[in-house]
Amino acid sequence: MNYQSLYWDTLVQLRANVYYLQAYQIHLEKWDNRIQIFLAITSSSSIGGWVIWNEYGIIWGALIAASQVINAIKRFLPFQKRAKQIGSLNTEVEKLALDAESQWFSVFEGKLTDEDIFNLVTKLKQQKLEASHKHFKDQALPIKSKYELEAAERTRAYFETYIRASTTGEN
Question: Rounded to 5 degrees, what angle do the CA atoms 59, 61, 66 make?
């Protein structure tokens, strides 16, 4: 087994997890903002409501009813809570990714034994698992292939820059 490759794969996966969680968090925050904007607009309907009531009463009434339903169920929607959980988890995963990157030189240069590298990989995976359980307990985060693709692309670009900078001395 090539333990350097195992370490590199773990390092890449951690960075991909960072980008995946960022994309997911942005998605959730956008939905939460949309809901908040919709509720704000419909709750301030009295401002121009008299004009709308006369011409589009049915539509405006439906919007007001929808806003009341959304307002009632809003606390059950996962957007705000899940975005907060993801943000907290991502902070920990990003720290793990940075720790892994800081160890990469020693791994790459052969300064560590295979056992040392294996132990580092195991420790990183254990810490990631603990962070996931801490922030999501028994919940599962649904997988979104769109964000996996985005994370893969951002990870590829990141490591192209990372490798170029580490081999040429560029920043």
Answer: 95
